[in-house]
Design a protein that fits this description.
DUF4194 domain-containing protein, mainly alpha
Length: 233
């Protein structure tokens, strides 16, 4: 007989992501007993529920301890399971830095896009949703700033199409927006300094800059494992 934990896991496996305001997701994030049952069942399959307070969605990812058995180890490690090449991975890092970092700053200061300035720093309010704080980046600007470094227009367009298909970004005219996975599958706290001072400095062949992109696909630039949360799919 079906139960709520089974149904929620099946929905996540089917749809890849669900919104945090979904009724069953809200229960999983607030009901410790329900969450423990979900975690137990997922762990038996080598999976975990992935969420963070800055993202509007949740998803499933592989547990770290099973990744080597799935993707190999050391020199045979498959650095991502999305079919992304190094320039695609680097583009993903750039988009994360351009879209997610400013969004998180606005969320941490409780500043929505259309905010009442008197309420901007009201810490009693919940963290604003991603859709209320995520602005996006102009495709024209992205191409002008990074096109030469990331394969020029043809390669960038191809990789943007793939990132859109995978759910990392959404495109609305000239604007590239955060997709449901962009702020879920990047381990910011662990990798931000490594990205700033490591991978991107190598990718762009320039000295590290404090405000440079910081995050996730760091390893692709060095042909090592990518420290992204590996999704279920």
């Amino acid at each position: 007989m079906n139960d709520d934990a089974q149904i929620l896991i099946a929905r996540l496996l089917t749809h890849q992501t669900l919104r945090r305001d979904d009724k069953m997701v809200k229960r999983a994030l607030s009901d410790d007993q329900f969450r423990a049952e979900i975690d137990k069942r997922l762990l038996e399959c080598g999976l975990k529920l992935l969420d963070n307070v800055y993202a509007d969605h949740v998803t499933l990812a592989l547990h770290r301890n099973v990744e080597p058995k799935i993707f190999g180890a050391k020199d045979i490690w498959q650095n991502n399971n999305f079919g992304l090449t190094r320039d695609g991975v680097a583009l993903l890092v750039v988009l994360w830095a351009q879209i997610i970092l400013p969004k998180r700053q606005r969320q941490e200061t409780h500043q929505s896009i259309d905010v009442d300035q008197s309420d901007m720093f009201d810490k009693d309010n919940p963290i604003p949703r991603a859709e209320d704080t995520s602005i996006g980046i102009s495709y024209t600007t992205l191409l002008a700033d990074f096109g030469d470094k990331l394969g020029k227009k043809t390669r960038m367009d191809m990789n943007l199409g793939l990132l859109s298909k995978l759910g990392f970004i959404e495109r609305r005219g000239d604007v590239i927006l955060e997709g449901p996975l962009l702020d879920l599958l990047m381990d910011t706290d662990v990798l931000k300094e490594r990205i700033i001072n490591g991978a991107l400095a190598d990718v762009f062949k320039r000295a590290p800059v404090a405000a440079a992109p910081r995050r996730h696909v760091s390893e692709a630039a060095n042909d090592e494992p990518v420290d992204t949360e590996t999704p279920q799919a």
